[in-house]
Structure formats: C-alpha cells, structure tokens
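Before the break, one more example. Copy the sequence into your notebook; we will annotate it together after we see the structure.
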Amino acid sequence: QIHLTESGGGQVQAGDSLRLSCVASERFFSMYCMGWFRQAPGQDREFVAGISVERDNTDYADSVKGRFTISRDNAKNALYLQMYSLKPEDTAVYFCAGDLITAASRVSEVTTSADKYDYWGQGTQVTVAS
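Here is what the structure looks like once it is written out:
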C-alpha cells in the first residue's frame, strides 16, 4: 500500500508561484499513474493534473493549462506540481493521488477520474489572496 505525503502549500498573492511536492512510501512508485486534485470549500474534488506511468504523458484541467506543470521523479518517489500565475480561484486543498497500473495497455494513460484513484495524501492548503 502506498502512502502519500504532500507539502509546499501556503498563502500567496495573486500572480505568485508555488511548487507542491508529494512523496510516496512505495518502492514501486513508478508503477502508479499519479494525479493532483483540489477541493475548495463547498465544492467537489476536481482533477487538476495527471501523469502516466510511461512516456510521462500529462493531462490538465482547462482551468490550469499553461499555468501548472506536473512532473515526477521516480528515483526520488516524488511527484510535483509547479504552479505559476496563481489566481484566487486556485485556492483549495490540494491532494496527490495514486492509481496502481497493472495492465500494460494503460501505462501511457492518464487517469482523470477521482474514483479510479485508490491512494490519497492528506492534502496541503493553497490560499491565493487577491
């Protein structure tokens, strides 16, 4: 079972940047499709970005395309979310999530649905002031 721990959240001004990190306990981290989700107060959890097991294919929510970049370092069991040009509407708790990929046909896919991720971190708060 993979354990995920996020860090890097904080309070910033609109237009600032932040880099979120997620460290995994699992030695087979490279077998997980990884994603970032966020949840604002009173809102459903929403997909932000995801990265595949192989080829580092990525997918982003339209609201963050061109501003956020997801990456992974399998040697460090780490997932990152670089966020630029932050807006007040980016304020939320950000979660990293892992989807264990066991089918060879899925190694280049990016999982975007929250209910397909089995493992979640505890979240890190990002607050963007206007």
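The CA atoms of residues 100 and 116 lie 10 Å apart. The chain has a mean pLDDT of 96. Try to locate both features in your own notes.
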